[in-house]
Write a structure and sequence with these properties.
The complex is a heterodimer of chains A (182) and B (397).
Chain A: E1 19-20, E2 24-28, E3 36-44, E4 56-60, E5 70-75, E6 79-84, E7 92-95, E8 106-113, E9 119-125, E10 131-132, E11 149-152, E12 158-167, H1 172-179
Antiparallel strand pairs in A: 2-11, 3-8, 3-12, 4-5, 4-11, 5-6, 6-7, 8-9, 9-10
Chain B: E1 8-12, E2 22-26, E3 31-45, E4 52-71, H1 74-85, E5 90-93, E6 103-109, E7 117-118, H2 123-126, E8 129-137, E9 151-156, E10 165-167, E11 177-179, E12 191-193, E13 205-210, E14 221-228, E15 232-233, E16 248-250, E17 254-259, E18 268-273, E19 281-288, E20 294-300, E21 310-316, E22 321-330, E23 333-337, E24 345-346, E25 351-352, E26 358-363, E27 371-378, E28 387-396
Classes of the chains: A mainly beta (182), B mainly beta (397).
């Protein structure tokens, strides 16, 4: 079943049904858990139509899936952050439920994590007004993430223009300046 | 001026010293960071300046230029330069609270003999000293972001992925495409097949996007983006060769190969419905599983367009339409609409590609069981009309 249209898949081998394989992209991320701001700018390509909670726009602490201790951005009724500060701990979440991006729109997400372990998600669509979701409950910062890995869009799809992670809690306006989009 | 203390440091091991480790605590993180690159380059121009040759040695080394300000421990700072002059590995830690974020570097300059300068702000008042340092990573790789002090991670579409691990199995059976930067008038991009890739080699796709627009069709491609997608199977066979036995002609439709396509080649086909009594079409029967299917197709206008427009229909062998859309052209610009009877959802506005093509997309209704679909591409919507259509690359995923 396919709820999304993806990039063109040409049939090069005669008579065959071609298969485009999955893009897997990870970076080393040695930074310790700390107050930080994550800014992601991308074109919505259909994560909103995939099963709730499955797409991962970005994961700190694992190469895919749900990190044992980490921070990730997912789509579940809207784009939102999930912060897990201990093994077996609950995912502390902050989700923007309205407005929801539609296919083709440029989306900016700002996920902040404070030194007290409070995560919050903000969203702007097509450079418009910033909508902030309610902040999640606090969770003490762990000493380390489960893995020193940053994974980009496992189990999802997006066309990224910017990925920034900056120390401290910053505003969307500040992150836009760092990204060079404002 | 108030005394302040940051949390950055430079560390090294000096085998001639009785200390297990030497540390220079910085008053603040390195500032005025500037990216640099060093390589032996030998250019030569012809006398009339119409030809240029360049000879380079190796791939060079990335460097970072930075200033140490307000240095209140000048002797240890000079010891740092002395150690660096012997090619001792130095470790720069922007924040000791985040010790795993560090950079193993060599000191490129200044090398001994050298002298520090007085800090321009606090030198005369407090004796603080100042020096500009040039560092090179021990593996000559890039410094991830110039503003290492503030950024924990930085990537902009088009930046190098040298620090990343990327994989996507790519072959003729497993192709991947993206839209190359525009070389065409109007900003339309050409479809390009990504080169074969294995881990760490080329294959991560930089595609060019239309800007978001509520109008139809989407605007010109002005935004580069890193495209990351999951695996998908195209259920249509021979979608770049519409003349094989996998395609059947319905009601005397004819087809001509060798037409310009949106990938810059000539694999598009001209479909011709010359009948004024029947609806002609090009058909392929595909097997689908239960659920929703995404359908897409490239098409371009011709000089013989029916006023009714053209259509695509996906119906079960039992006659139930699961998806469809119709399109009318006006001065080469399409207007896509639904199809009766069909519950289709138009996925995105038509998106422009090279050579006058647009990509049309639609989502089907949900099938409760697996089954077969007849996919029909019809240059004329009604039997009473005739017309032609340029077609390329149908996909059902």
């Amino acid at each position: 079943m396919s709820l999304t249209v993806t990039s063109f898949i040409p049939g090069i081998v005669a008579g065959a049904q071609p298969i485009r394989k999955t893009d897997v992209l990870t970076f080393p991320f040695p930074a310790a858990p700390q107050a930080m701001s994550i800014y992601v700018r991308f074109q919505e390509q259909g994560n909103s139509k995939v099963g709730s909670g499955i797409p991962r726009l970005l994961i700190i602490g694992a190469a895919s899936g749900t990190p044992a201790v980490g921070l990730y951005i997912t789509y579940n009724g809207g784009y939102g952050s999930r912060y897990i500060n201990k093994v077996g701990g609950a995912a502390l979440g902050s989700t923007v439920t309205s407005p929801l991006p539609t296919i083709g729109e440029m989306v900016e997400l700002l996920v902040t994590l404070t030194s007290a372990g409070i995560t919050q998600t903000s969203q702007a669509i097509n450079g418009g007004a910033v909508t902030a979701a309610g902040a999640a409950a606090a969770g003490v910062l762990p000493q380390t993430w489960a893995a020193q890995t940053l994974a980009v869009c496992p189990n999802g799809q997006a066309a990224f223009t910017h990925l920034l992670i900056v120390r401290g809690v910053q505003t969307m306006q500040t992150m836009r300046k760092y990204a060079g989009v404002a | 001026m108030a005394v302040f203390r940051g949390n950055a440091a430079l560390k090294w091991i000096d085998s001639t010293d009785t200390m297990t480790q030497r540390v220079l605590l910085l008053r603040e993180p390195l500032r005025e960071l500037r990216a640099s690159h060093r390589q032996h380059v030998y250019p030569a121009d012809s006398l009339d300046m119409t030809q240029r040759q360049v000879y380079t040695v190796g791939s060079g080394a990335y460097e970072l230029v930075a200033r140490v300000r307000f240095g209140d421990n000048p002797q240890t700072l000079i010891d740092l330069i002395k150690a660096g002059s012997k090619l001792t590995t130095l470790t720069y830690v922007p924040s000791l609270s985040d010790p795993d974020t560090n950079y193993a570097v060599y000191l490129i300059s200044p090398l001994s003999p050298t002298a520090l300068k007085m800090d321009p702000n606090t030198g005369t008042l407090f004796g603080d000293q100042d020096v500009e340092l040039t560092f090179r990573k021990t593996d000559q790789s890039q410094f991830q972001a110039v503003q290492e002090n503030l950024f924990l991670f930085s990537y902009r579409a088009g930046d190098s992925l040298a620090a990343a691990t990327f994989t996507r199995v790519t072959s003729t059976a497993n192709p991947a495409t993206y839209v190359a930067s525009s070389g065409n008038v109007g900003g339309d991009g050409l479809l390009t097949t990504a080169p074969k890739s294995t881990a760490g080699t080329k294959g991560a796709r930089l595609t060019w996007l239309s800007t978001a627009s509520t109008s139809v069709p989407m605007g010109a491609r002005t935004q580069p983006a890193l495209l990351i997608e999951t695996s998908r199977k195209n259920l249509v066979k021979d979608n770049t060769n519409l003349g094989t036995a996998n395609w059947t002609l319905v009601n005397s439709l004819t087809r001509t190969s060798g037409q310009k396509d949106p990938a810059g080649g000539t694999k598009a086909w001209l479909l011709n419905d010359a009948s004024s009594t029947l609806v002609g079409g090009l058909r392929q029967q595909v097997t689908v599983v239960a659920g929703v299917n995404a359908i897409s197709l490239f098409a371009a206008p011709t000089t013989n367009q029916p006023s009714s427009g053209w259509s695509v229909s996906c119906a079960t062998t039992g006659g139930t339409t699961r998806a469809g859309f119709s399109v009318k052209w006006s001065s080469g610009v399409p207007t896509q609409a639904g199809y009766t009877p069909s519950p289709s959802v138009i996925y995105t506005p038509p998106e422009s590609y090279g050579n006058g093509f647009y990509r049309f997309t639609v989502l089907s209704s949900t099938a409760t069981t697996a089954g077969k679909l007849n996919v029909d591409i019809r240059p004329a919507l009604f039997a009473a009309q005739k017309g032609t259509l340029l077609v390329y690359g149908p996909v059902i995923e």
